[in-house]
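step 4 of 6: structure.
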Amino acid sequence: MGGKPRVAFFDFACCEGCQLTVLGLGEPLIELLEHVEVVTWREAMSEKSEEFEVAVVEGSITRDSDVPRLKRIREQASTLIALGSCATLGGPHVSANRLDQSDLLTMVYGDRAREFEAGEVRPLSAEVQVDIPIYGCPINADEFVSVMKHVLLGRPYRVPNQAVCHECKLNQYECVYDRRQICLGPVTRCGCDAICTSRGHRCFGCRGLVDDPNLNAAREVLEEHGYRVEDILSVFELYATWARPEEGLGIVEPRAAVKSRKGSEPWRFRSSI
Amino acid sequence: MTARRRAMLGEADVWALLERAGKRGPLMAPVKRGRNSFAFEWVEDPGAVALRYVRTVLPPKRAMFPEREAFLRFRRPPGAGAEAVVSEEPYVLFGVHPCDLAAINQLDWAMGRRHEVVDPNYVARRGAATIVGMECLPDEYCFCPSVGTCDTREGADLFLTPVGSGYLAEVLTGKGRELLDGRVSGREASSEEVGEAEAWSETKRRMTSCQVDAEMGELADLLDSRYESQVWEETALRCYSCGTCTIVCPTCFCYDVEDRLDLTLMSGTREREYDSCQYPDFALVAGPHNFREERSDRVRHRWFRKFVRLLREYGKPFCVGCGRCTQSCTAGIGLTSVLNAVIAEARESAA
Ligand code: SF4
Ligand code: SF4
Ligand code: SF4
Ligand code: SF4
Ligand code: SF4
């Protein structure tokens, strides 16, 4: 390969917010450009090239006609990075999979529905092998820089697999549950430095589920906070639907027998809200 | 003027003390965060310090063992040089409750004396501290009397107990005397005031509503006999493995290490960050083998670590009863609830 590795940016169905996050990096982006040559980036430049080593791909696959393009990118790239929750999880529009395809087209395009193509919304990994997933809606710019450093040095990147609570606690943010609201932090993959809970919002789960989420616990806890199973599914619908949380949430296990004992601490969810 | 061993300070004197500590160097103290949470932070404005609080999100150990810390600066390629990053700048750590003092004493052992190789960053930061302890009142999650940490003074240089509208200050070390000296006009405490301060201990015991249903001396054997208990499995059904209970624990000392390169790609820092035995990948080693793959194995490990293994090695449980783990577990898993369930099982099966 010689010279600097060539990087190409591509996008499929998405809002381009993740690419915008990369563009908005400022100083670090300029420093990164010392080490790489960007050869294709529709959002940022007019030049194009089919020759590259690193492909950064944003967006999800929604039309079968997009698949050959993605496969060509995969064949060319020695490293394929999936950028953002659309590319890694399908994105918020996965919720469209719950609707009938033709209804959906009519809903969006009215009379002209027949001129458009739609299909199951799916992450890149449903079609090709993804080397490094960068989760987030949008991504965390620092994580993008860190991934690029790993790629440049040929080191394996360790995708964060702790819950958002890890970063939330390290930053000593007040827990949303302490304000008697719910939060998806305990089952959501971290890496965002708990940006939402830093502003007093709950985590919406935009980075998707951790590798081994305890959805059974999530269901019990949310139920104790007054949520019904349908509400719980809709809480998960934004970002976790491709991962099919309903399969995990459907399992009904006996409750832990450890909740309240005389002389031990009180059960904190005694009065559900 | 040399300060007396027990001086009575007015509240204004305590603010003056904070002011003075803040001028001398860095000051870490509890401040209010959010609607109802507190955090030990490096404070710029001593006026923001919370004199009364029940517990903070992270314990004060972060002064000497920060949640994220760079401890080495290096250059590439390997062999091009590296320097340790250690800060020995003196600081004041204010407002540490007795349970957290006990935890600092435990970490002094774990990081400084337990092994031949010490943790140089912890030891340096610990040595740089002047610690002002503060008496407190328990809430429904505290159980310091059960684990014997209620009246801890060791570890503090100066200890304050609210008495009347002021504070009784116990000077415990030379550093404590120096912090008080000259600036703050304390007067000798009367015997009534000393008596009132001493009554706190009893009040705390009376107010504590949860406890461990066993003597500390029998605890390790009781738990050991229930290694295969169903309680671990049942608790695991509720547990997210989110790690919160250990990240907030003042006695936990696990961390993960990562090298972070600058964008020159030629230099960087080696950093550590709190890690948790509750994370699925915590016990993942080469192979790959994971010797605590099951959630229930990790759950059991938390209680065994505190009440079996380190209890036997240190002589006291590695839990100081601060209640942070229970208060912050979003699944509602209680430290003493689980412990007492296992104790009850052990007693039943022995009977
Ligand atoms: S992950 Fe979110 S920000 Fe990124 S492209 Fe998709 S919708 Fe936009
Ligand atoms: S606010 Fe959410 S992410 Fe933070 S500790 Fe609470 S549950 Fe976890
Ligand atoms: S806190 Fe949750 S919703 Fe917010 S950025 Fe992080 S993962 Fe996404
Ligand atoms: S805080 Fe609760 S849910 Fe999270 S790992 Fe600890 S016991 Fe499990
Ligand atoms: S185990 Fe829980 S109660 Fe005990 S010291 Fe740790 S956080 Fe505090």
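step 5 of 6: annotate
 - Residues A 14-18, 58, 84-86, 91-92, 137-138 surround iron/sulfur cluster (ligand 1) (CB under 6 Å).
 - Chain A has eleven helices and five strands.
step 6 of 6: archive
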